[in-house]
TrEMBL record, chain B:
One Pfam family from the record: TPP_enzyme_M
Name of the protein in question: Acetolactate synthase
Highest classification ranks of the organism: Bacteria, Deltaproteobacteria, Candidatus Desulfacyla
Family per similarity comment: Belongs to the TPP enzyme family.
Listed PROSITE patterns: TPP_ENZYMES
InterPro entries reported for this sequence: Acetolactate_synth_lsu, AHAS_TPP, DHS-like_NAD/FAD-binding_dom, THDP-binding, Thiamin_PyroP_enz_cen_dom, Thiamin_PyroP_enz_TPP-bd_dom, TPP-bd_CS, TPP_enz
One MF term in the entry's GO annotations: magnesium ion binding
Species in which this protein is naturally found: Candidatus Desulfacyla euxinica
Gene: ilvB
Residues covered by the Thiamine pyrophosphate enzyme N-terminal TPP-binding domain: 5-119
Single GO BP term: L-valine biosynthetic process
NCBIfam families in alphabetical order: acolac_lg (TIGR00118)
Reactions catalysed: 2 pyruvate + H(+) = (2S)-2-acetolactate + CO2
Cofactor: Mg(2+); thiamine diphosphate
Length: 165, 562
């Protein structure tokens, strides 16, 4: 059922905090050939409930199937697709940037502009912490790349709906 | 409060669920359970292979509408259930499989006979559990049975560490299931159903397509009422056979790859397709773009993910099939239906013409035709037997020529197409329905996949009749090779087989053989009259083909005919 273009969807999935629930969700995506761009999971304010945030790509038919299949998993309480809704989105990235004496100032300037924080300073590398939406993180990575990136760890997107007015 | 061992709690909880029958096989990790099991009133059927235990539980469930239960040990016992679970999962059959597990302290240590069966079976169960706290045991069992039989049914597995079975804990029966994350929709949306009425009124060429969901929801009577009121012809999937009276004018037979000419033509020409409890499998639709392309489609199913998965529909209705049909029938009572049936006369005439020009056909010559065996079996038993099937040509001829007259009587591995299903499923069906005639229609290849269950049937005096259509080939694969692979029969020759008559005797059953057409009826009559397990071998035409046949992926109107 090809009815539309592939699009990115951020899904927020509330699950019972049961052993194996991550494997159930991940296995569903791999077993049915669905896409996972990023996946992020942790407990919510209710300890029995975890929230998984999954970024996936697919046309409307595929994403509809993904949501229906997710809802079929017994431990899945609720699936929210933020597409077309008002929501806030953040991702955290830790980036280890090469900091040679000649470009330290430039690194710090970028850190300042992007409102990152340097959280570890070594002889050769600065580790910085950056939060933002995906656009901001890729913009920063593009700018900093020429200076040399040693390692990156990213959380993947997190999202919550905005309050309805 | 009563202090009981885990094994005792397990068995009490099973009894709470009304379990009186278990198919199983013992082993180290479940000895505590077996030790207690024999002290209860639950009847245990000792199979000869754990795959047979799951298929038997499955056949039991399909024939009775109750949950089938199976008990096996850890490790190899557990892995042997995987094929059975996948079979039940594909066909939405309520089965609960209890597996032993190594003691908790050893889990993860590659202990003797340890496998991560919960990990292995996650994608082929509706849900599964590893019990790690004895306090969760009775609730888990309650939930497992509830999940297996509710909503879209399916198999559920519970993994039971050995130490939990032997330790003691207080037991309090659990009375209610409380799963906030699992709330199947039974009651269909009335607004959606009301939208169906104008489509019914306008339709000139309506058709009903019914599937396994109608069997599972016990909706056969409502479906028949619905079809007759609207003079609408009915076709079913393989899984739906038996939901509509086979001798009715409106009955078209099965559709799809080996469907009847009339059913496939009607599907592609209809202007309204009312699909109930089906999931539009590729063996049903063929080329999806041309499938029912002239029709508006109403799709009723309890599983939302079945709707719009494969075909676009005009009106989706999520809910229990029987309930939806019941409501539709009630709504139709109030409808002005005068004239609509007259307007459909040309459509019904067209269908009669299809029926008479291209009926299912074969010619019985010097060699036994497999179709003749099934047709004779159907005549002698008046279509009232419970049929189980193996997989392949035998299964398709059974579907085409044995006209079961009731739901829950055509028991076949539809979704998985699992060879070796028929005999153990027949055991389960016979246990569920001791007074019914149960016949396994088998191929010479498939029957050898779980032939060891002959011993089970003999041990418990189950008077199953096995009809082997022996074409000395893995016939269905050979058919594909003949038609699409230049007649190169790569590895499908099965001529080296046991002497089935002697084999039956070796198991303590009766073996009969027919090698000529004139022997078919006498052998069937003799076999059916014998009280115990009988295996009848029919030496059939080796290279007979199942017709009609739609090549995989082609439009279902492009049938190869005899
Ligand atoms: C477990 C399993 N293995 C392989 C297949 C593939 N397969 C489908 S039909 C068939 C031939 C079955 O042979 P037989 O039981 O003799 O039936 P026939 O088609 O000859 O009637 C095979 C091998 C299958 N469906 N299931
Ligand atoms: Mg064969």
């Amino acid at each position: 059922m090809n009815e539309s273009m592939n699009e990115k969807h951020i899904l927020s999935i509330l699950v019972e905090n049961q052993p194996g629930v991550l494997a159930r969700v991940a296995g569903l995506f791999s077993g049915r050939g669905f896409n996972i761009e990023s996946l992020c999971v942790a407990e919510t304010n209710e300890p029995q409930v975890s929230r998984m945030t999954i970024v996936t790509i697919g046309d409307l038919g595929v994403v509809e199937q993904i949501k229906k299949q997710l809802n079929k998993i017994v431990d899945v309480i609720k699936v929210i697709d933020f597409t077309g809704k008002k929501f806030v989105q953040r991702e955290l990235a830790l980036i280890k940037i090469r900091a040679r004496p000649e470009n330290r100032a430039e690194v710090l300037r970028m850190v300042d502009i992007f409102r990152c924080r340097v959280i570890d300073v070594g002889a050769e590398y600065y580790t910085v912490e950056l939060t933002g939406d995906e656009g901001k993180i890729s913009a920063f990575l593009n700018l900093i790349k020429p200076m040399g990136i040693k390692e990156i760890a990213r959380t993947g997107a997190l999202a919550l709906g905005r309050e309805k007015k | 409060m009563e202090m009981l061992t885990g094994a005792e709690i397990l068995l009490k909880s099973l009894e709470e669920e009304g379990v009186d029958t278990i198919f199983g096989y013992p082993g180290g990790a479940v000895t505590d359970i077996y030790h207690q099991l024999v002290k209860t009133d639950i009847k245990h059927f000792l199979v000869r292979h754990e795959q047979g235990a799951v298929h038997a539980a499955d056949g039991y469930a399909r024939a009775s509408g109750r949950v089938g239960v199976c008990l096996v040990t850890s490790g190899p016992g557990a892995t042997n259930t995987v094929t059975g679970l996948a079979t039940a999962y594909m066909d939405s059959i309520p089965v609960v499989v209890l597996t032993g597990q190594v003691p908790r302290a050893l889990i993860g240590n590659d202990a003797f006979q340890e496998v991560d069966i919960v990990g292995i079976t996650r994608p082929c169960t509706k849900h599964n559990y590893l019990v790690i706290d004895i306090a969760d045991l009775s609730r888990t069992i309650k939930e497992a049975f509830y999940l297996a039989r509710s909503g879209r049914p399916g198999p559920v597995l519970i993994d039971l560490p050995k130490d939990i079975m032997s330790m003691t804990a207080p037991y309090k029966p659990v009375k209610k299931v409380n799963l906030r994350s699992y709330q199947p929709t039974y009651k269909p949306n009335l607004r959606q159903l009301n939208k169906v009425l104008p489509l019914i009124r306008e339709a000139k060429r309506p058709l009903i397509l019914a599937g396994g969901g109608v069997v599972l929801s016990k909706g056969s009577e409502e479906l028949t009422r619905f079809a007759k009121k609207l003079m609408t012809p009915v076709t079913t999937t393989l899984m739906g056979l038996g939901v509509f009276p086979p001798r009715d004018q409106l009955w078209l037979g099965m559709l799809g790859m080996h469907g009847t000419y009339r059913a496939n033509m009607a599907t592609s020409r209809c202007d309204l397709l009312i699909a109930v409890g089906v999931r539009f499998d590729d063996r049903v639709t063929g080329d999806i773009d041309t499938f029912a392309s002239n029709a508006k489609i109403v799709h009723i199913d309890i599983d939302p993910s079945s709707i719009r998965k494969n075909v676009a529909v005009s009106i989706p209705v999520v809910g229990d099939c029987r309930l939806a049909l019941e409501i539709l029938n009630d709504l139709l009572e109030k409808e002005q239906l005068d004239g609509i049936n007259e307007a459909r006369a040309p459509w019904l005439d067209q269908i009669e013409e299809w029926k008479s020009t291209k009926p299912l056909a074969y010619e019985q010559g010097d060699v036994i035709k497999p179709q003749y065996v099934i047709e004779t079996l159907c005549r002698l038993t008046r279509g009232s037997a419970i049929i189980t099937t193996e997989v392949g040509q035998n299964q398709m001829w059974a579907a085409q020529y044995y006209h079961v007259d009731k739901p829950n009587s055509f028991i076949t591995s539809g979704g998985l197409g699992c060879m070796g299903f028929g005999l153990p499923a027949a055991i389960g069906a016979q246990v569920a329905k001791p007074d019914k005639l149960v016949v396994d229609i088998a191929g010479d290849g498939s029957i050898q996949m779980n032939i060891q269950e002959m011993a089970t049937a003999v041990q418990y005096g189950l008077p199953i009749k096995v009809v082997i259509l022996n074409n000395q080939y893995l016939g269905m694969v050979r058919q594909f090779q003949e038609l699409f692979y230049d007649g190169c029969y790569a590895c499908t020759d099965m001529a080296c087989a046991p002497d089935f008559v002697k084999l039956a005797e070796a198991y303590g059953a009766v073996g009969l053989r027919a090698s000529k057409p004139e022997e078919v009826e006498p052998v069937l009559r003799e076999g059916l009259a014998i009280e115990g397990l009988v295996l009848m071998e029919f030496r059939v035409e080796k290279e007979e083909l199942v017709y009609p046949m739609v090549p995989a992926g082609a439009p279902i109107t492009e049938m190869l005919l005899v």
